[in-house]
Amino acid sequence: MNTLNCLVVDDEELARRLVINYCERVPYLNVVGEAANPLIASQLLREHDVDILFLDIQMPEMKGTDLLRTLRHPPAVILTTAYSEYALESYELDVTDYLLKPFSFERFLKAVGKVSESRPGPVSPIYSAPAAAPEKSYQLVKSEHKLFRIAHADILYVESAREYVIYHTATGKTMALGSLKALEESLPANFMRIHKSYIVAKDKVEMLEGNQVKVGAKMLPVGGSYREVVKGTLFEK
Fold first, then answer.
1. What is the per-residue pLDDT across 135-189, written as a single tens digit (0 to 9) for each?
2. 110 and 156 in one domain?
3. What is the rounded distance in angstroms from the CA atom of residue 234 to the CA atom of residue 208?
4. What is the pTM for the complete model shown?
5. What is the mean pLDDT of the chain?
6. From CA 59, how far away is CA 108, in angstroms rounded?
7. 193-223 b/e with 16+ CB inside 10 Å = b?
8. 90: left (phi over 0), alpha (psi -120 to 50) or beta
9. What is the domain count for the chain?
10. Range of the domain at 167
11. Is residue 221 over pLDDT 70?
């Protein structure tokens, strides 16, 4: 199959690195550029022939969907976002697929496959990815010169404390260097950000009351920009 040129647009460097890494694992994908905001992306689209645009939605200055509306002849678009409420809008914009962060390599391949199937020309053999290692069921956490394995199933929530994060479980808490932004990329899909200072395990959330959720015996604040996502993801049928 012919090579597909890709442009990766996301304001978070870790998110761009993940998509680029996934692209590099697929023989027929070629990354021609990356951009941290839609304005740079617009320039790169004029400079390169782009077949697939990996596009984040929530970015400073301009949303990814706003950029998409300015393109007269957009390439195939795969939206990448942490916010599920944009799914309907993505269908209205006729995007190829919608990847909800954090997404696996297998889910990434499925999205890319939709692009390759829609293009004329010889069909490439199905990409045989190496057998994926089982998803880790724990976090490796270094604290007080010790290395801990904290099972994902045991985590109630994770709290930000300046340059540290605190893992809260039913049996106690563990503090380690780190950031919630980095954790969002490494924790499995059962975890979600509810506030600039908190990530919770979805299945441990018992109640939503005003702008707070109950996790275990603790009431945690829900940021204003997260409330609708929390409500729609956890408390609507």
1. 678 888 888 888 889 999 999 999 999 889 999 999 999 999 888 888 887 888 8
2. no
3. 9
4. 0.52
5. 85
6. 21
7. bbbeebbbbeebbeebeeebbebbeeebebe
8. alpha
9. 2
10. 138-234
11. yes
